[in-house]
């Protein structure tokens, strides 16, 4: 039925009136027959659901055809395993990639309904935290856009990451109830359920042919129920599947206990099982929290691999050619237990011998590493692994024995063997999940050129040497459909009019903007679209936190997960230094500036939460100071998510990417902000290095120690006290914070924070302060020269086409997955 509703190619022209009328009729039909609402009484959410369902109809037929074509052509598929998929709102993405945004807008306008209001009714899917999850979402969209058959596999978190509430400057976590009103984009697959076991015991059993097979008798079984969401590629050429697992108890109610009056105890097993898919990243300070996180990781890895094997066997006689038909990408260490699980399935369930199973496993898996910090590489206590996953622990021991035998045969001494072992014997016997993923994969990639080289040189140097140089680089990218076309339609329209609509399909054509950077009229148009975006953000800030900000001020933006290595603290200290200077010299000609912060701290990360409180306390003092005449404002916008980012990023003038060099794997926020014309102030860390190379040193504010210099300082022993005494601006800012200037009701609130920084500045905040403060003054000087600023802004947009996730996926496809792309 829906094939009669053709996709309108994405362009800047008005849609066909016939298509508009068909879409309008479809919305009305959905409103009546599926939402069950009358047109005259429908509320905004009713209209959203009806519109989403009408759009979904256009998706489903093409989704089916994509799957049918893959099946008919027996194409190799990519399976992307990730704990997070930060997909945000889906309706504008789907409509945009199908070329139906203007069609939907006019269809709703003809019904007296505002399109933007309807789009705003959709809840952000709370399926991720930060860059890791957003990268997975960008990759899924790009795989569909470049015609790679793919399944994304993860968990359908009922509440996902928490919703952040700021009260009294303090972060509070409350459940993010994103599914409360339903999700029109997902399809429950009630016939697609897999059993996932935990605990129990393992014993050998003799088969009829006399051979022995290990059999795991799980003590607990949880059902994994699939929910599918279509992922629409650009222009709708391919639609892939995001398959998320929801945990269900095999026996939802112990009826005998219930009838005896134990109404709560009768549901205990159900609550334990379904806790697996309740919350993203449950607190892991307790042993129970650690156990739940491990249960989550195994749950989705097992269900996903069972699903992959089922689908393969529906087309092929056996599993010997699995790696030729399927590429499984491990997004960080969270799904690393999948290495042992695939071995278990191949051997214990499908009867393979060890060597054949191991060959298939290594050829099937590849692993993306996202961190250089050893403490961030997951490890699990051996006793907990043996209790929860006894068969997997046996397999890990066997993998490790073979791995160490190969290393020993290659000349490894005892120290090297200890360092490359999958079991860390020095810290209470723990399984190193990064090592397991590395050994079990044929390719391991970093996510920026610097990160990948540092992997070779530091955290995985010995393992890479023993395993034969498996590390390669795949610099991250972002989908321009979401972060330019959808987030910034005014800039997109300007670009298409200035350099041609082909830029919508080929990001590399942004280079055609370079000559226009010297065109005053184009620079004015570029500045004009930024001004509009800043007005929208100012309205949002006013409505969210009651702060009035000036759209003509320099919008200085740091939006990311709150973590000490990302150095929001450095930004706050510099803000205080600027505040001190403005109060000391009130008649000086200061550049109006708005410092914008957003991001969440992990619930158990007390230092990060203290930094959030400091940011809010500094904001409260500065924003109320009449001496400043409004020239400096500070805004901490709560509950950072994809939708908020889509409003902030087009409005940003200065992009804060100031992590300690050598610790940020890549970053993708830096790419999104540069694409929209923000100038980066940052260290030579992660993808900043490659952004610097492409936009040119004159169009970026680079400062601070390099990764090599950071390592040297740490080896030599760094004295933060000396750095503070040598810098009057730094000393004055730290004294103000420590003495209670920003916490008058509790003067010692931040004394410990400052003393801790001076006694153990592990992220070298004080070492980089003067260089950072100086580059901030350079940014102000450039802002005071509009022609120079907007020239640099245009050149940033012009030179970042390479950071498209389409490019990244094509590299994965050619060099890791061995799949064809369009």
TrEMBL record:
<dbReference type="GO" id="GO:0008184">
    <property type="term" value="F:glycogen phosphorylase activity"/>
</dbReference>
<dbReference type="GO" id="GO:0030170">
    <property type="term" value="F:pyridoxal phosphate binding"/>
</dbReference>
<dbReference type="GO" id="GO:0005980">
    <property type="term" value="P:glycogen catabolic process"/>
</dbReference>
<keyword id="KW-0119">Carbohydrate metabolism</keyword>
<keyword id="KW-0021">Allosteric enzyme</keyword>
<comment type="function">
    <text>Phosphorylase is an important allosteric enzyme in carbohydrate metabolism. Enzymes from different sources differ in their regulatory mechanisms and in their natural substrates. However, all known phosphorylases share catalytic and structural properties.</text>
</comment>
<keyword id="KW-0663">Pyridoxal phosphate</keyword>
<dbReference type="InterPro" id="IPR000811">
    <property type="entry name" value="Glyco_trans_35"/>
</dbReference>
<feature type="modified residue" description="N6-(pyridoxal phosphate)lysine">
    <location>
        <position position="672"/>
    </location>
</feature>
<comment type="similarity">
    <text>Belongs to the glycogen phosphorylase family.</text>
</comment>
<dbReference type="GO" id="GO:0005737">
    <property type="term" value="C:cytoplasm"/>
</dbReference>
<keyword id="KW-0808">Transferase</keyword>
<comment type="function">
    <text>Allosteric enzyme that catalyzes the rate-limiting step in glycogen catabolism, the phosphorolytic cleavage of glycogen to produce glucose-1-phosphate, and plays a central role in maintaining cellular and organismal glucose homeostasis.</text>
</comment>
<dbReference type="InterPro" id="IPR035090">
    <property type="entry name" value="Pyridoxal_P_attach_site"/>
</dbReference>
<dbReference type="Pfam" id="PF00343">
    <property type="entry name" value="Phosphorylase"/>
</dbReference>
<protein>
    <recommendedName>
        <fullName>Alpha-1,4 glucan phosphorylase</fullName>
        <ecNumber>2.4.1.1</ecNumber>
    </recommendedName>
</protein>
<keyword id="KW-0328">Glycosyltransferase</keyword>
<dbReference type="InterPro" id="IPR011833">
    <property type="entry name" value="Glycg_phsphrylas"/>
</dbReference>
């Amino acid at each position: 039925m829906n094939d009669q509703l053709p996709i309108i190619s994405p362009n800047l022209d008005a849609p066909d009136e016939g298509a508009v009328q068909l879409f309008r009729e479809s919305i009305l039909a959905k409103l009546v027959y599926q939402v069950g609402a009358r047109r005259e009484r429908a509320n905004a959410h009713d209209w959203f659901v009806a519109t989403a369902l009408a759009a979904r109809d256009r998706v489903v037929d093409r989704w089916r055809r994509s799957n049918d074509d893959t099946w008919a052509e027996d194409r190799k598929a990519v399976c992307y395993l990730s704990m997070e998929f930060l997909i945000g709102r889906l309706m504008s993405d789907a409509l945009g990639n199908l070329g139906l945004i203007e069609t939907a807008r006019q269809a709703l306008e003809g019904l007296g309904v505002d399109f933007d209001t309807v789009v705003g009714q959709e809840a952000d899917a709370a399926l991720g935290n930060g860059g890791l999850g957003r990268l997975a979402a960008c990759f899924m969209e790009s795989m569909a856009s470049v015609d790679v058959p793919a399944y994304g596999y993860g968990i359908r978190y009922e509440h996902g990451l928490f919703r952040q509430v700021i009260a009294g400057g303090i972060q509070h976590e409350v459940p993010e109830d994103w599914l409360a009103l339903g999700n029109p984009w997902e399809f429950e697959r009630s016939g697609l359920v897999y059993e996932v076991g935990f605990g129990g015991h393992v014993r050998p059993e003799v088969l009829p042919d006399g051979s022995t097979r290990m059999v795991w008798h799980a003590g607990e079984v949880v059902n994994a129920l699939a929910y599918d969401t279509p992922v629409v590629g650009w222009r709708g050429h391919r639609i892939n599947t995001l398959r998320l697992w929801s945990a269900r108890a095999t026996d939802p109610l112990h009826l005998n206990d219930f009838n005896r009056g134990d109404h709560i105890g009768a549901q205990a097993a159900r609550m334990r099982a379904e806790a697996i898919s309740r919350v993203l990243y449950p607190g892991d300070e307790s042993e129970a929290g650690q156990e739940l996180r491990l249960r989550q990781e195994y749950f989705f890895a097992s269900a996903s691999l069972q699903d992959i094997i089922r689908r393969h066997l529906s087309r092929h006689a056996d599993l010997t050619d699995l790696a030729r038909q399927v590429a499984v990408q491990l997004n960080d260490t969270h799904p690393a237990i999948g290495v042992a699980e695939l071995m278990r399935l191949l051997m214990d369930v499908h009867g393979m011998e060890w060597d054949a199973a191991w060959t298939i496993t290594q050829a099937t898996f590849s692993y993306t590493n996202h961190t250089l910090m050893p403490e961030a590489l997951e490890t699990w206590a051996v006793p907990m692994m043996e209790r929860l996953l006894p068969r997997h622990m046996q397999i890990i021991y066997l993998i490790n024995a073979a791995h160490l035998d190969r290393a020993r045969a290659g000349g490894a001494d005892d120290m090297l063997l200890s360092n490359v072992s999958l079991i860390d014997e020095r810290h209470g016997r723990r399984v190193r999940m990064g090592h397991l993923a590395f050994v079990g994969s044929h390719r391991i990639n970093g996510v920026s050129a610097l990160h990948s080289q540092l992997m070779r040189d530091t955290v995985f140097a010995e393992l890479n040497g023993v395993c034969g140089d498996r590390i390669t680089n795949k610099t991250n990218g972002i989908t321009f459909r979401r972060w330019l076309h959808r987030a910034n339609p005014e800039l997109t329209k300007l670009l298409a009019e200035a350099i041609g609509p082909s830029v919508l399909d080929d990001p590399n054509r942004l280079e055609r903007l370079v000559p226009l950077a010297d065109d005053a009229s184009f620079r004015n148009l570029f500045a004009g679209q930024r001004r509009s975006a800043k007005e929208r953000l100012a309205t949002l800030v006013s409505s969210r936190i009651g702060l009035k900000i000036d759209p003509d001020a320099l919008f200085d933006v740091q939006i990311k997960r709150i973590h000490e290595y990302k150095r929001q603290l450095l930004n706050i200290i510099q803000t205080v230094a600027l505040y001190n200077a403005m109060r000391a010299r009130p008649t000086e000609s200061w550049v109006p500036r708005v410092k914008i912060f957003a991001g969440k701290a992990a619930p158990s990360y007390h230092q990060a939460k203290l930094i959030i409180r400091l940011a809010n306390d500094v904001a409260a003092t500065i924003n109320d100071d009449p001496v400043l005449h409004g020239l400096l404002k500070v805004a901490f916008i709560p509950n950072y998510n994809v939708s908020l980012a889509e409003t902030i990023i087009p409005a940003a003038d200065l992009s804060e990417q100031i992590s300690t060099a050598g610790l940020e794997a890549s970053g993708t926020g830096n790419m999104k902000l540069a694409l929209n014309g923000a100038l980066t102030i940052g260290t030579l860390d992660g993808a900043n290095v490659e952004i610097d190379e492409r936009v040119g040193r004159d169009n970026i504010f680079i400062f601070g120690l390099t990764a090599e210099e950071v390592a040297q300082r740490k080896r030599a022993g760094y004295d933060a006290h000396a750095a503070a005494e040598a810098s009057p601006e730094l000393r004055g800012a730290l004294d103000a914070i420590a003495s209670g200037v920003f916490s008058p009701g509790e003067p010692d609130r931040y004394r410990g924070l400052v003393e801790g920084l001076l006694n153990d500045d592990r992220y070298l905040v004080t070492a980089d302060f003067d260089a950072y403060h100086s580059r901030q003054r350079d940014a102000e000087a450039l802002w005071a020269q509009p022609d120079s600023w907007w020239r640099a802004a245009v050149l940033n947009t012009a030179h970042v086409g390479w950071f498209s996730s389409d490019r990244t996926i094509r590299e994965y496809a050619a060099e890791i997955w061995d799949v064809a792309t369009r």
